[in-house]
Amino acid sequence: MTLLRVAHLKASYGASQALFDVSLDLSAGEVVALMGRNGMGKSTTIKCICRMMPSEGQLVFSGHDLHQLPSHRVARLGIGLVPEGRRCFTNLSVAENLLAAARPGDWTQRNIEDLFPRLGERFDQQAASLSGGEQQMLAIGRALMTNPRLLILDEATEGLAPLIRSEIWEAIRRLKEQSDMAILLIDKSLYELSQIADRAVILERGATVWSDQISSLTPEISERFLGV
Amino acid sequence: MISERYLNALVLLAFLAIPVWAILADEPFTITLATRAAILALAAVGLNIALGIGGLVSLGHAVFFGIGGYAMGILAFHAQTYTPLELGGLSLAGTKSMPVVWVVAMITSALAALGIGVLSLRTTGVYFIMITLAFGQMFFYFAISWSAYGGEDGLSIYVRNEFPGINTLVPIQFFGVCFVILCIALYLNARLAASPFGLALNASRQVPARVEAVGLNPTRIKLLAFVISGALTGLAGALFADLNRFVSPTMFSWQLSGELIVLVILGGVGRLMGPVVGAALFVVLEHWLGGLTEFWHIFLGAILLVIVLFARGGVVGLLTGKEGAHV
Q1: Which of chain B's residues have a Cβ under 8 Å away from the Cβ of A143?
Q2: Does residue A85 sit at the B interface (CB-CB below 8 Å)?
Q3: Count of helices and strands (H, E) across chain A
């Protein structure tokens, strides 16, 4: 059953149109990679889904028209966002960051500690003093504490050391295996995405140009739309 | 440097010790000063919830202080003149009961904060400051024109309100009442700051968009904080009016709003005990420097400059070695 349906999505930054025709579907338990070169509209699509900017077209999550809802109501419906650039609440501690976002459900501080043991050792530490990788883990943990049905990760491993990147990919892999949460991933690592994602959607100049099983992604398509 | 928890305990003990010393030294006026400091601290604790945790720079908090004061003044006025209070067809008796006055003061202040907050929180930054200032001026001029309750001359209350089992006319007993209320407010403030609501309020101050992304409405959170803040400041206003047995439009003045902000900055914005230290320091300076010159505010300004430039965590931050405001 489709959890999120995005169809013919259009959005603009002032007079400059960024999205022309973005469409994608996501079902419960499915992992979808949203791909495309820089500036093709991936993060803008995420912002539209989370109602952080106005858009036109169809945006339906679990039967609810997202266009009718403000950003915080969208999050309460069950869309958890890990935004680009981590963005933790820097003057709160790790535990306080998690507590501030907590809503009833399966995800607790204990689960987050299990998922990211490195973070568990720093629960009392101020978020500002964490390393970039730990802040990223905290951003994921904070999104999970909202007990989402759809987790959106926007460039979750960008700019991180290889060891930390592999820890985060491992955590995402565990999330896929151990829950029926849908995951929408944006990342530049084609190799990692091909290992985890079920399907891929490729954007080119603000429009969906390719959507299929990620195993169907041929080198020709990658080169044409992703430049790799 | 001293740990903040230790410093907090020390401040409360000192607050309690000074009136005890005043009794032994037969200095009743010092008890009145300590009471004034406790009440101003209570008002600043209220402001600190909005300003320190929520980042809402309100230049109209005197509105709630004044409403609390007038709630006390009006109820006591009708009690002492044995005239009913006519309110929209209802005829109510006045009262001299402190607990009743406090409840009325808190409810009316909270309602005013709700109304002001709903409109003011549509804006941020300098516009928020200006809107709250404008509300303050509206209430100030309304009080001046309210001739039924003294207009510009204010309203005198001849006898202090009553509290069961306590002779509130005895300075140390009235101080005790104010001090206990201050301690309760501090306890609630600490609990609130550490609660999910307080943490979300703190986060809303930093980046509202991120708070929305976790399913919380930052405007609603700030509004609730503003209402709680207003209610506490209103309670302080009622006690202040009881201390002076007098209410006047100056309780609504923007200067008073500014002074409340100064108290918080002096002590430490966002610090639990910042408002208490700030109020104590303010009252000491007011009494000591005010005895030397009527232009004592010049020296207060200089001290404030030093604090803002060199000790951004206020006196509490300076003593604990922590600049960042985090409750």
Answers
A1: 213-214
A2: no
A3: 9, 10
Residue closest to B198 by CA, chosen among B181, B221, B215, B220? B221
* Structure confidence by residue, pLDDT tens digits, B103-140: 999 999 999 999 999 999 999 999 999 999 999 999 99
Name the helix (H) or strand (E) containing B83: none
pLDDT tens, position by position, B2-58: 888 999 999 999 999 999 999 999 899 999 999 999 999 999 999 999 999 999 999
Q: What is the CA radius of gyration of chain A?
A: 17
Q: Which chain B residue has its CA at the smallest distance from A140's CA?
A: B214
Per-residue pLDDT averaged across B242-271, rounded?
Answer: 96
**Which pLDDT score is estimated for A158?**
87
Predicted confidence band of residue B326 (pLDDT cuts 50, 70, 90): very low
Q: What is the pLDDT of residue A228?
A: 77
pLDDT of residue B115: 97
Tens-digit pLDDT profile for residues B290-299: 888 889 989 9
Distances (CA, A) of B84 to A75, B79, B93, B100, B202: 52, 8, 5, 16, 45
For residues B53 and B65, what is the distance between their CA atoms, to the nearest angstrom? 20
Terminal-to-terminal C-alpha distance of chain B: 18
State the Cα–Cα distance between residues A158 and A133, nearest whole angstrom: 9
Q: For the structural domain made of B4-320, what CATH number should be given?
A: 1.10.3470
Helix (H) and strand (E) counts in chain B: 13, 4
Q: What is the dihedral of CA B275, B281, B282, B286, to 10 degrees?
A: 160
Q: What 3 state SS string does B202-245 have?
A: HHHHHCHHHHHHCCCCHHHHHHHHHHHHHHHHHHHHHHHHHHHC
Q: Which tokens in the block code for residue A131?
A: 């390393």
Residue B324, pLDDT score: 58
In this prediction the pTM is: 0.90
The SS3 assignment for B327 reads coil
Partners of A76 on chain B (C-beta within 8 Å) are: 215
Touching check for B191 and chain A: CB below 8 Å? no
Q: Which of A87, A91, A109, A146 to mutate to test the interface with B (most CBs of B within 10 A)?
A: A91
Domain boundaries, chain A: 2-85+144-226
Helices within B245-295 (DSSP H only): 254-267, 274-292
Residue type, A190: L
Cβ of residue B243 closer than 8 Å to a chain A Cβ: no
Instruction: State the average pLDDT over residues B158-168.
Output: 93
Q: Count CB atoms within 10 A of the CB of residue B244.
A: 18
Query: Is CATH 2.40.128.10 correct for A2-85+144-226?
Result: no
A21's tokens: 């025709």
A201 and A33 in contact (C-beta within 8 Å)? Answer: yes
